[in-house]
Amino acid sequence: MSRAGRSLKWVLLDLIHRCNHLRSFNQIHAHLLTSALVTNDLVITQVVNVFRKHCTDLHYPCNFLKQFDWSFTSFPFNLLISGYASSPLPWFAILIYRWTFRNGFVPDVYTVPAVLKSCAKFCGIAEVRQFHSVTSKTGLLCDIYVQNSLVHVYSICEDTVGAGKVFDDMLVRDVVSWTGLISGYVKAGLFNDSIALFLRIDVERNVATFVSVLGACGKLGCLNFGKGIHGLVLKCLYGKELLVCNAVLDMYIKCFEPDGVILTSVLSACASLGHLDYERLVHEYIDRSCIKWDVHIGIALVDIYGQEALKQFEALIESGTRPNEVTFLAVFTACCHSGLVDEGHRAGLVVEAIELIKTMPMPPDVQILGALLSACNTYGYFGFSKEMLKTL
Asked: Which GO terms describe its biological process (predicted)?
């Protein structure tokens, strides 16, 4: 191509990119026809983008396609179908495909996923089945890319029978095949089937596989199996993947009733990571019981709001709820962190604290002894400190 031809191509590409309505594109289209640049792949891509964004009349794209030798290239057709499949007008992709098919266009392995993607946008199960039949007749059904697309779109439409049939007929399956059917079972509420299929996987799992099966565990409340999946996640080095971490958290919350300490830690983590959706999910599990107050007091403690923790404790007492050991621990710790000595009875009464520990019905644990050791060092009871160290 001459220098002038190259310059014209880039000028036209820039003009097409700037098009914001079809009227201006018609003038550019005339230049494309006279310059023979209409067959250039870059030009075709830009033209398709204009149609996808601004065209609601199928005459324009159909007339555009008539300029090509259909037996020579499928690129313009696949690109146009794929562009409409990703647009707010996904049914245009199906209409264009039908028009081209009636006029002699033979679909290939790139046409199928684009058409199926448009079917999935509005769950057109009738169109999916019709296109499934076409792929079978044209020999495209042997391609794993086409098979995976069919499994995926059947799953989206919650036709697990259709998805399972395609899956069972596959001679070779990859992780996309397995994950597509597992996610389809989960979407359709067939959680046991999804777990059973997960156990059959003979290829390396990916993030989507773990997210799907963890969702099934959470729905069924299978804590032990969920722990096993969590272990497998760590073994496969997916422990730091955000989607997997969220799925693990969701599974644990749904599988058992956490106490105030766990909920406080989880809410603090959600706040730090900015996961507001999961923070709301945790709040759904907090009813108006002592756990609720433990969590509120614990959150105040985490945020170093000692006075707020005391207000929550007073509200608990006024509501008639009986505080438990977790509640007292949270309040005392909040007072300690915030320097509220009087409220927390931290006026250096180390001897009284030791006497209290002696009257406990159970032996003190490491946490209690550690707290007492810290108090002894703070208030100069070094003799007691030595005794505590021996005990520890």
From this structure: RNA modification
Asked if 164 and 181 count as a contact pair (C-beta separation under 8 A), the reply is: yes
Q: Is 8 exposed, middle or buried (0-12, 13-18, 19+ CB in 10 A)?
A: middle
Domain ranges of the chain: 173-256, 258-341, 348-392
- Most confident of the following: 21-35, 253-267, 326-340, 343-357: 21-35
DSSP per-residue codes, 277-327 = HHHHHHHTT--SSHHHHHHHHHHHHHTT-HHHHHHHHHHHHHTTPPP-HHH
| 313 phi/psi in degrees, rounded to 5 | -65, -40
The contacts of residue 257 (CB under 8 Å, 6+ apart) are 285
pLDDT tens across 92-140, in order?
A: 888 888 888 887 777 888 888 888 988 888 777 888 998 899 888 888 8
For the segment 159-210, what is each residue's pLDDT rounded down to a tens digit?
999 999 999 999 999 999 999 999 999 999 999 999 999 999 999 999 999 9
Q: What are phi and psi of 323, to 5 degrees?
A: -70, 150
Token pair 């909040």 is at which residue?
A: 334
Q: How many CB atoms lie within 10 A of CB 46?
A: 19
What's this model's pTM, rounded to 2 decimal places? 0.62
